[in-house]
Specification:
The complex is a heterodimer. Helices cover 17% and strands 34% of the residues of chain A. By secondary structure, chain A is an alpha/beta fold. Classes of the chains: A alpha/beta, B alpha/beta. Chains A and B meet through strand 14 of A and strand 5, strand 6 and helix 7 of B.
Chain lengths: 258, 303
């Protein structure tokens, strides 16, 4: 897919709660094609400690309003600075980067989309894409606490949503891999994005139950286009760039101890 | 429109803007952003005789106005390059230059000999900052004698333009430049990355898997500029300047310091179209100051 360097204009910056913002960006021309699971490299101006762009998952593309959405967790100086943009500001964005999730060919597929924290971001666009292909997604979303569950109403509009929180403030208490829906229902495809320990646990579950599973990795990266070889993951074919060969990988390709 | 063309050895370039090895892939990765014909040359990633997996992850740490990397020359080896990459890049209408690395002199020479056969690769850039496995891992390029030895061996088998990329992690870089000039280099490029280190205080651990790594980016520019100035005064062969060039003004500063061409590296990560913007900016500068040719400003620093 062709990649673009674009100056996009901020249309909305909503603080979802203390640690997360939802950014919506647009331009006059139609936004390029983007796939669920792909990401953008966003430049952050005015932060003296932020030199490189920040790789951020594409959360959703609203074709009716010609907006691309990013769900951003405030983790360091760069993302905190990015969270201060206002409607009308221009943000330099390189997109779409990497490969998206695989959409099953059979409409009879029963996919489970497991997200943790800000890792739920690409699952909104994926769920939307699945639904448009005639496949109803089921979501299993985990967070530390109820307030860390993001965009729940939007997920509920696409399919069934099951929730775990570590403190039990919403849904079942514990981790996603402990949720009762895993024993109550059967799935034949799992997609997951979130903290690495969560994804490893999900991959173990999928592997043990012979369920096809794709994970989205977020290794530290610089260029985003497969040039600098910094973000490598060790795989069955050696070191490969997460930015170019991923960020979505089938767990069969990874050398995780699962 | 000023005349931007420059020559380095037998290389003719439309302008002095090249890309630094390891920051621009094989050029193919940037074709969505840049028309490669509009830049003087592309130096593709470091190529070794044999396949190398490189260092374990993590390989990168961001630093104030810069970054550290510890990729470890990951590449699939020169034979893979010849069979699989060369066919994809041989018709790109700019100077496609291969950066050659090795861990022993024989490997450098053999890699250079193989690339010498490729019609559309008009030059190589020798990376002499690699550890010499036969000398206890000390880099070839940190002594004048070690640097000259590699260059002589490659010169014997390589007839086209030979650029030697110098390490800044030395006491006197001009002395190394003079030694590689005497050994037959057509040009020197500098600076390679500066050895640095990053620590995660919370975890009390190094950030890079290799503990230390090579620093690049805007923060290294003053050091690079100083070294280019020193080397340009010391040698007669053309100097290629690199190290922290982020925009056309940085590039002009290197030309004034004595560089005949420049390489853009880490800045490609921040703006994938920066190479073309720098070429345009140099042209605008020349027009604004009434210079007919870029050659008029090479080494034109008034001191």
């Amino acid at each position: 897919m062709k990649k673009y360097l674009l100056d996009l204009t901020v249309t909305e910056n909503t603080r979802l709660h203390d640690n997360y913002v939802l950014l919506k960006l647009t331009q006059d021309d139609d936004l390029p094609d983007m796939l669920a699971g792909q990401f953008a490299e966003i430049r952050i101006d005015g932060s003296s400690t932020t030199f490189l762009r920040r790789p951020i998952s594409i959360h959703y593309v609203d074709r009716t309003t010609n907006e691309v959405w990013f769900l951003i967790q405030l983790v360091g100086d760069g993302t905190r600075k990015l969270a201060t943009v206002a409607p009308g500001d221009v943000v330099s964005v390189v997109l779409p980067l990497g490969n998206g999730f695989t959409i099953p060919e059979s409409a009879r597929c029963r996919p489970l989309l497991i997200g943790g924290g800000v890792g739920t971001a690409p699952l909104l666009m994926l769920g939307d894409g699945l639904l448009k292909s005639g496949i109803r997604p089921t979501f299993l979303l985990g967070a530390r606490s109820a307030k860390d569950l993001l965009q729940l109403e939007l997920f509920k509009a696409l399919g069934d949503v099951f929730v775990t929180t570590e403190d039990g403030s919403e849904g079942e208490k514990g981790y996603v891999t402990m949720h009762s829906v895993l024993s109550a229902q059967t799935f034949d495809r799992i997609y997951t994005c979130g903290p690495k320990p969560m994804m490893v646990a999900v991959a173990k579950y999928a592997s043990a139950h012979h369920i096809d599973c794709e994970v989205s990795l977020e290794n530290t990266m610089a260029c985003g286009v497969g040039a600098c070889l910094c973000c490598v993951e060790n795989t069955t074919t050696g070191h490969v760039c997460v930015c170019k060969e991923g960020p979505v990988f089938n767990i069969e390709k990874l050398l995780w101890q699962i | 429109m000023a005349d931007l063309s420059v020559s380095i050895g037998k290389l003719q370039m439309v302008n002095p803007v090249m890309t630094a090895s390891g920051t621009f892939g094989y050029g193919l990765e940037f074709q969505d952003f840049v028309d490669l014909e509009q830049i003087g040359g592309v130096i593709v990633k470091g190529t070794t005789l044999h396949h190398r997996e490189g260092n374990p992850y993590p390989r990168m740490a961001e630093t104030p106005m810069g970054m550290l990397n510890a990729v470890g020359l990951q590449n699939k080896g020169v034979h893979y390059f010849v069979e699989n990459i060369y066919p994809q890049i041989k018709d790109i209408r700019t100077n496609m230059i291969v950066n050659v690395s090795g861990s022993q002199i024989e490997d450098y020479a053999e890699t250079a000999r193989i690339i010498n056969e490729l019609e559309n690769i008009p030059a190589i850039e020798l990376n002499i900052s690699c550890p010499n496995v036969k000398q206890g891992g000390m880099a070839f390029g940190v002594t004048a004698c070690g640097a000259a030895e590699v260059v002589s061996a490659v010169r014997k088998v390589y007839g086209k333009t030979l650029i030697v990329k110098l390490s800044p992690n030395v006491t006197n870089i001009a002395e190394i430049a003079v030694a590689v000039e005497a050994a037959g280099a057509d040009s020197v490029s500098l600076i390679n990355t500066l050895l640095g280190m990053a620590i995660d205080a919370e975890k009390r651990k190094p950030i890079l898997s290799t503990i230390t790594g090579g620093m690049s980016g805007a923060a290294v520019k003053p050091i690079a500029l100083r070294m280019v100035w020193q080397v340009a005064k010391a040698v007669k062969i053309p100097v290629i300047g690199l190290g922290g060039i982020m925009n056309w003004r940085d590039a002009v500063e290197f030309l004034l310091a004595g560089a005949s061409a420049i390489e853009i590296g880490t800045a490609n990560f921040i703006d994938p179209t920066i190479t073309v913007k720098v070429a345009e900016g140099i042209n605008a500068y020349l027009d604004r100051h009434g210079f007919a040719s870029v050659n008029d400003i090479i080494g034109a620093l008034e001191v």
